[in-house]
């Protein structure tokens, strides 16, 4: 065993620790030590800091021992209040703690807003892929029948009963025909030398037609729509029969049954049976019969087209609207009427039209197939309900929206024939039990009132007659005095804050259609409250050169002469500034960015003769034409060029295909 004098420092420390571990401590002393340690640990920070602050002066003067100096410096590194006390002892300026500034709401939510924005962008960018991911599983279609060589994108020959997968290209050879049945029950017939692919998605199946002809019998869609996409056009439907042809010179969509929405570079339009839409004028001479003549069921489609054309003429003759000279429910208008649409009660004519279609179905197997199909069940039931209750009502039915824009209350009001109240109530009860959506009604005082909910019905009945003497009601009554058929009146400013200037908003807009000995006549009335309104911008009537630009087949043409355009611009800008005081600075900023002045470069270049018309009544975007006289054509051309250049300059690089393009065309000697 080594002597203590021969041990090094580590061995001495180990021996001391071993002695401490082996030392027996009385339990009372151990408990007292524990309590002293706990008392020091539980001491308040103030008491602990007081002991250290007593060392600050000796520490500053250099009189504090090395061990205590180390303890104090360690404490100063962890205690801000003692550091401030030491700084004050040294004579340093006192630092006043300022209240922590609370982050603005936008600063707090900005990270979440950015994250939400990025998520929205990601969802929007990947919406097509998400749509396809959520589509039904399994094959998109099955080959129902075929004739001649038909191949998939791997060059394999298809046979009847073979499933066609998602986005698999299928092409038909010369003399071949193909019939596909889609998963939703729709049928697609494919002509020879055609190529297509079927893409399934949550929003509906898409037929991507690369070239050739297809004829589609679309089943009623449970959700979304069936689409046929050609390189330069798209047709979408919910249940109908139509054909699509595409090739090097353009695409052509034609309709046999139902309605089809067509989208192409010219916009959107709705096609009815017997109508077609082409992306190239050279294809417009094609008839609907020609577009389906290649089909194995062409004779059926020819017969169906003829049936629809014949029925349209007969039903039009049956349901001509009688002229009415007195309103029947105007005295019961509820408060805050914004919309008033009055339709004549066709009465027995509705039942006659249904009987005519039933008779035609008994005579024509082709029409019977369409009329008795499940897809037309809703139409048959709705027409049957109308035909059932029409004989119990008076000469018109009126649809109104009352109550203002915050809580609109739609309702239908109609007079009830004497003695028919109980029979009408029973008929409505039976209709409600078997139809959707639900509705409520009240028959009182010889009048039927129908509304979607009980609260809306109570409002209409509780405020009945409060708008009977309103300006809108007076204008409607004036039109009835000379005889009317269909009437639609709107009050755009109803329910708005009357303290705000509304001179640019019509007080009312009224459309009317009536039958005269010379034929059907349509009229539109715009009523303004007066003052510096658009009605005051018109000049006295005179001849118009602008109307010469419209064809004889135009459906609606509006032509007028105005006052000096610069004066109109000044009045218009003044009214806009009343509504939005910041508009003047915004317009000045826009003019600076575009490098032009609207008043001097645009308004001063225009004349006082203008016209606007509808050449083709297509929906939702009709074929329209606007003609405006110009007195300084060069100035107007330069302004248009500046606008186009400015818009294109701000267009992002990834949207270069959307840049505007200017073109000039000369027709009939006019540029």
Short description:
The protein has 4 domains: 65 residues, no CATH class; 169 residues, Jelly Rolls (Sandwich), CATH 2.60.120.1440; 150 residues, no CATH class; 118 residues, no CATH class.
Strand content: 15-25%
Report the average pLDDT across residues: 76
> Using DSSP, what is the number of strands?
26
Oligomer: single chain
**Per CATH, which architecture of the largest domain?**
Sandwich
Tally the helices. Answer: 20
Distance between the termini: 122 Å
**Main beta-sheet strand count, sense and barrel state:** 15 strands, mixed
What is the molecular shape?
extended
Radius of gyration: 41 Å
Query: Helicity level, as a percent range?
Result: 25-40%
CATH topology of the largest domain: Jelly Rolls
CATH domain class of the largest domain: Mainly Beta
Low-confidence stretches: 121-127, 496-501
Number of domains: 4
The chain-level structural class is: alpha+beta
């Amino acid at each position: 065993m080594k002597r203590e004098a021969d041990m090094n420092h580590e061995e001495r420390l180990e021996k001391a620790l071993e002695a401490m571990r082996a030392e027996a401590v009385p339990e009372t002393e151990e408990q007292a030590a524990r309590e002293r340690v706990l008392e020091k640990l539980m001491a308040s920070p103030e008491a602990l800091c007081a002991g250290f602050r007593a060392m600050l002066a000796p520490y500053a003067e250099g009189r504090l021992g090395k061990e205590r100096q180390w303890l104090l410096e360690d404490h100063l590194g962890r205690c801000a209040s003692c550091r401030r006390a030491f700084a004050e002892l040294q004579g340093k300026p006192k630092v006043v703690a300022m209240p922590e500034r609370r982050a603005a709401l936008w600063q707090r939510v900005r990270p979440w807003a950015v994250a939400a924005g990025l998520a929205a962008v990601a969802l929007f960018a990947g919406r097509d892929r998400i749509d396809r991911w959520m589509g039904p599983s399994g094959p998109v279609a099955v080959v129902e029948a075929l004739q001649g060589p038909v191949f998939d994108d791997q060059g394999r020959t298809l046979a009847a009963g073979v499933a066609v997968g998602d986005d698999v290209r299928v092409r038909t050879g010369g003399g071949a025909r193909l019939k596909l049945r889609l998963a939703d029950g729709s049928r697609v017939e494919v002509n020879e030398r055609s190529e297509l692919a079927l893409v399934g998605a949550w929003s509906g199946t898409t037929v991507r037609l690369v070239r050739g002809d297809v004829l589609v019998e679309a089943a009623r869609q449970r959700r979304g729509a069936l689409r046929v996409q050609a390189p330069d056009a798209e047709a979408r439907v919910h249940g109908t029969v139509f054909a699509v042809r595409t090739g090097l010179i353009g695409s052509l969509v034609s309709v046999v049954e139902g309605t089809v929405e067509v989208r192409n570079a010219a916009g959107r339009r709705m096609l009815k049976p017997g109508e077609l839409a082409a992306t190239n004028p050279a294809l417009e001479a094609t008839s609907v019969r020609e577009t389906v003549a290649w089909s194995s069921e062409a004779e059926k489609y020819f017969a169906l087209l003829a049936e629809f054309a014949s029925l349209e003429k007969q039903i039009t003759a049956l349901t001509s609207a009688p002229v009415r000279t007195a309103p029947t429910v105007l005295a019961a208008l509820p408060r805050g009427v914004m919309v008033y649409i009055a339709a004549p009660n066709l009465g027995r004519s509705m039942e006659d039209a249904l009987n005519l279609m039933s008779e035609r179905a008994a005579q024509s197997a082709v029409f019977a197939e369409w009329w008795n199909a499940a897809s037309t069940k809703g139409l048959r039931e709705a027409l049957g309900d109308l035909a059932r209750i029409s004989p119990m009502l008076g000469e018109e039915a009126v649809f109104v929206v009352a109550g203002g824009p915050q809580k609109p209350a739609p309702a239908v009001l109609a007079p009830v024939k004497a003695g028919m109240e109980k029979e009408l109530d029973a008929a409505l009860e039976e209709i409600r039990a078997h139809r959707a959506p639900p509705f409520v009604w009240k028959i009182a005082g010889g009048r039927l009132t129908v509304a979607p909910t009980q609260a809306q019905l109570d409002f209409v009945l509780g405020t009945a007659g409060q708008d009977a003497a309103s300006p809108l009601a007076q204008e409607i009554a004036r039109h009835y005095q000379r005889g009317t058929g269909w009437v639609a009146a709107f009050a755009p400013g109803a329910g708005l804050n009357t303290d705000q200037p509304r001179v640019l908003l019509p007080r009312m807009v009224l459309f009317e259609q009536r039958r005269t000995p010379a034929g059907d006549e349509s009229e539109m009335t715009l009523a303004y409250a007066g003052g510096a309104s658009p009605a005051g911008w018109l000049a006295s009537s005179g001849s118009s050169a602008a109307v010469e630009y419209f064809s004889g087949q135009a459906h609606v043409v509006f032509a007028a002469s105005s006052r000096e355009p610069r004066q109109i611009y000044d009045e218009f800008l003044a009214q806009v500034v009343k509504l939005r005081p910041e508009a003047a600075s915004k317009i000045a900023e826009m003019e600076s960015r575009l490098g032009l002045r609207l008043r001097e470069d645009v308004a001063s270049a225009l004349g006082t003769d203008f016209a606007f018309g509808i050449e083709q009544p297509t929906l939702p975007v009709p074929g329209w034409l606007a003609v405006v006289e110009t007195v300084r054509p060069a100035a107007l051309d330069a302004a248009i060029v500046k606008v186009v250049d400015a818009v294109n300059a701000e267009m992002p690089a990834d949207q270069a295909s959307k840049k505007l393009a200017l073109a000039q065309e000369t027709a009939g000697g006019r540029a």
